[in-house]
Amino acid sequence: SVDHMYNNSKNSPLCKLKRPDRIAPVAAVVINEYFTDSSIILQWRNSSSDDVMKRELIRSDGKTKKTILTSPNDSLSHFTDTSITAENSYTYSILLTDSSGNRTITDFPSITFAPRVIPALQQFTAKVDTLNRKVDLSWSPPTGKVDRYIIYRAKKGEQLRSWKTLDGNTTSVSDHTCYVGNTYLYRIKAVMKSGAETKMVEVEIDY
Fold first, then answer.
1. CA 16 to CA 206: how far, in whole Å?
2. Is residue 137 packed enough to be buried (19+ CB in 10 Å), middle (13-18) or exposed (0-12)?
3. pLDDT of 98-145, one tens digit each?
4. Pairing of strands 117-118, 197-198
5. For strand 161-167 and strand 146-155, is the pairing parallel, antiparallel, or unpaired?
6. Among candidates 48, 97, 101, which has minimal Cα distance to 77?
7. What is the pTM of this model?
8. How far is residue 24 from each of residues 41, 89, 93, 106, 183, measured CA to CA in Å?
C-alpha cells in the first residue's frame, strides 16, 4: 500500500492459490478378470494421473454394493476376492478420487462365480435306528441348484463303492443293508446343475 506521501509499505505475505481443477483423473484400465475354484481375481492398469488421492474397489451382487478395498494410492494393480458365493454374479468397479474431489469410475464386466469344485455339504450325519434296523443319513443342501447327490458306502477296511444316486431335492436316505457288529463309512457329494461338484464329506458309524 502507498500513503499520501507516497511511502510504500512492506510487501504482504505471499498467498498461494491453486488453479481450479475440474478434470477427473484418468480412469484405470481393466486387464483381466477370471475365477478359480475358490476366488475371483481382478487385474487392472492404474491411472496415469498424479493427483489421485483415493482409490476404492466396489463390489455389487445385484442387491447390495460394498467397498472391499480402499487405498490412498495406486500401489496395487490386482485383487483376489475370496468372500464370494458359488453361482452368484458380481460386478466390480474402481472409483478414483483426486485431490480436488473429481471422480472417475471403471467397471469390470459382470462375472458369475461358477467354480468346478465347491465346499462340501454341511451337517452330513448318520444315526442308527436299532428298532427298524437301519442307518438314517441326512444332510443340508448347498446354495444353488442341485442336479443329484452321489453317496458312497463301505464296511470299514473295504473299498468304497458308489451306493446311491439321489435326485437334487433329496436331503435324507436310509440304509437297510447293515449288519450288527460292523463299522460303516459313508461319503457324499452333490453335483450341481452348473456341472460343479462339492467336495466329498465322510461320516463313520458303528452299527
1. 83
2. buried
3. 988 899 999 999 999 988 888 899 999 999 998 999 999 999 999 888
4. parallel
5. antiparallel
6. 48
7. 0.66
8. 27, 29, 16, 12, 69
